[in-house]
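User: I'll paste a sequence; please echo it back and then give the predicted structure.

Assistant: Echoing your sequence first, then the prediction.
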Amino acid sequence: MSIIQNIREKGTWIIFGIIAIALIAFILQDGVGRNNNNSGITNIAIVNGDPIDKVSFDEKVDLQVQNYASQGVKREQVIGYQYNQEIDLLLYKQEINKLGLSVGTKEISDVLFGTESPFKNEFTDQATGEFKVNDAKNAIAQLKKSKNVEQIKQLEKFYIEPSIENRVRSKYQSLLIKGVQLPKWLADKSIAEINNIASISYVGVSYNSISDSAAKVSNDDIAAYIKKNPAAYQNEETSRSISYVGFNASPSSQDSLAILNQLIALRDEFKATNNEASFLNKAGTDLPFYNSYVSKKTLQIPNKDSILNVGVGNTFGPYIDGRNFTIAKVIGTKSWPDSASVRHILIATVNPQSGQQIRDDSTAKKLIDSIKMAINGGASFEAMVAKYSDDGGSKANGGKYEMFPQAQMTPAFNDYSFDNPVGSKDVVKTDFGYHYIEILKQTPRGPAYKIAYLSKAVLPSTETLNAASTAAAQFATASKDPKSFTANAVKEKKEVFPAANIKANDFEIPGIGESRALVRWVYDNDLNDVSEPFEVGDNYIVALINAEEKKGLMSVEAAKPVVENIIKDQKKAEIIKKTFKGNSLETYAASSNVTIARADSVNFNYSTVPGLGNEPKVVGAAFNKSLINKVSEPFAGNSGVFVVSVNNISAIQSQQDPNLIKDELLNRTRSSFFRSAAGLRKAATIEDNRYKIY
């Protein structure tokens, strides 16, 4: 196990610094954790009849949370990501099984140790870029010999299984993509179109010439339009909308003053103490005391220069640091390097995850002293690392940690690495055991500071919370339907806010924030119901369910913001066509009191017309050979109604290799054909049970 990596503030605790394959972006959904409404539900989802087991799913989620805890990732964030991963994996697996694709025994070695090895990051020589295959194999063998069930499970879940899944999925994707070909006639036609340009003359009448009041759009118009174009206006899943009012429970000015006075009362004692750790433990602080030094360059704190200028033994503050009032005390200063490289051997006394004792202190001390004596007598440091070190994270690298910054290691390890010159060797005791450390390299030295922070968050008092919660409860009690909800909001001068498009599995509501409990309430109740107060952040929220969008065809209200302008332009086009008459460009122009315009170098490959903008129908007319020296019928474009006359269509000398163009067209066709599992999802029958569980 990588004990040193566990020591690092931002590190991970698995032997190789476990990272989840393909963890690109989390679905940013936060909220509360699991609830008890999941009795009897054993599957997270059922995909085309195949279940995704809840126990296995939760296990994977917990492993992800464990590995990304140092990055502040919450369990609720991982659930959405892992669900999508599992759905896609199962859909691929179903298709792959139909085709009989697999990864053979001999191929597994290439998967794990070939050019796409998941271990490359951990076993690549930074100087040469060489992937140390044998080191990777030896480290894995040592891990398996250790019989550490938890770490072996992590290795399987986060390295081996995803790598095999990726390889077989790659085969499936290659099979599909390579099956897509571009016919020669289509390639030749596309190249000809790319190399053609047209020159046109046209007359256009803008939709802006017709007032909106002359082209009113009714709900019936919208309903008819979306019914005629159903594919473009579909809800992928059910959503609901709410209106809500908030009752502010953030700290009052009196609350802030109370915390400020509390810190001022402790300032002199904080300044006078010689045992900052004990004082802070007794007084309480929101910023843990790091009993070591940090480079001036690395310090990222408010009022940095003012704090450092007070001198050793003095304090600065109280000052505002986010939502806290803070007093900083400069305890000491040293000249330290910013980064250091060391190699070490760890003889562990405890398991950092379980806290269980591995060996007693005296046994560990005797063993590390023997190792020190052996190395001083000429034994190979690397050999001692390989044979004795309990730090799996550095063991495969000869015990080395390369150029790590200050404040990343546990204080005793950190202090020795930065306080002593290059070449120093000695035994250092930390909370995890005994280390024999040799300092290999350091950056030039500069000022570093040990600073203690007495910091307390400004929180709402009991009185503030009670006042807000009471007001919210009274409002909820008096508002049992939409009419009384609106009336009471007006009476109390409360602004009513909308929150739309809330999905059943969301953990966050736009404008409100994290509140899984409120989302569940929205789906556990009916339209026009009013909630009891929900505490969300610094507010108590009372919500009214006012709309629902079912899965399938959008409602008129949902489609209106998009469709209304489309229909309005259609109506304006019909109005324009009634007076836009003629048999030549001149007579058309005269009929609407507009001028004839010209556009040269119109390219079929682009929908933009020089001087006109995005008008694909005009571009299409520009390459209609039947319109050469003739005038089209009026047609509706994006910005108005047009008539077009083609002056000429000509070929240009292309500077591009036709073969390269064909390859690009083929790749574009393949890319559009297969991008993700989205197509498989649309064709699948998926029963999503997350809402019933979390």
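Residues 3-178+685-693 form one domain. The first strand starts at residue 43 and ends at 47.
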